[in-house]
Amino acid sequence: MELAYIPSPSRGVIHLGPIPLRGYAFCIIIGVFVAVWLGNKRWIARGGRAGTVADIAVWAVPFGLVGGRLYHVITDYELYFSEGRDWVDAFKIWEGGLGIWGAIALGAVGAWIGCRRRGIPLPAYADAIAPGIALAQAIGRWGNWFNQELYGRRTDLPWALEITSSTDGRVPGTYHPTFLYESLWCIGVALLVIWADRRFKLGHGRAFALYVAAYCSGRAWIEYMRVDDAHHILGLRLNVWTALIVFLLAVTYLVVSAKKRPGREEVVEPGAFASGDEADGEAEASGEDQAAEGDDQAAADAKDEVKDEAGSSKKT
Description:
The chain is mainly α. The protein has helices at about 25-45, 50-75, 80, 100-120, 120-140, 140-145, 180-200, 205-225, 240-260, 270-315; strands at about 15, 20, 160-165, 175, 230-235, 235. Helix 4 (about 100-120) runs antiparallel to helix 5, helix 5 runs parallel beside helix 8 and helix 7 runs antiparallel to helix 8. The radius of gyration is 29 Å and the shape is globular.
């Protein structure tokens, strides 16, 4: 008998008239807003302009959503293209199914386009938004809770997740809440990146690489606990292999980048400081002009006083 467990919602969507409000979509949207908000604060602290992160996110987010969905559909194609399945379901992103690997890869392409249009180095932008992405993932994982999906093996632990749905082969019971494990891990990754960035002044994409490496190290063991269907290679799930390979690439980048380009970028957004200096210069010039005008007026007043005194003496 389970003394305690995490209950699953009875449904993942609420209808306001004809408008469906889906918990999975809400988690994704809230995560995006948090990532942009934190990224904007970090970007301004690095010397960039307010609003730049949001402008580039207009490119990165749609690309990331498409990339995440493509990765999921390609690696789990049998869910959409096998016998008895409807391929139209591949477009129903609100029902769940986003691969973080594809989201980051194609999202980086969108961010590169946005950065190129603004004349901003992509690595500096990636460093600014890295902790925000981790927090967005932490929030987004709760969408799996709403959909009762991606849970782990059976368990009787007090924090077990109760699954009540029996659709798509689910078996009601209590399981490891891998969505919660990954959510907490992502919060830890965000805090780690923020601390390391302040302590070691990470630059040239190294804060982002640290985020990738830290996330992959946690995703590997969390993925190993999951019991949903997945492709296996040499006895390991595909996503475990992906996490291991991406982890090695991120660590390699950290080491090589630190040797070739130590330190941090001095300027992350060309013109950001220049515009501020120009504004200060204009203010100073305006102040000098006002002072000069005041001196001229004082001189004119003095001349008038001399004339008045001279006229008065003549009359006397």
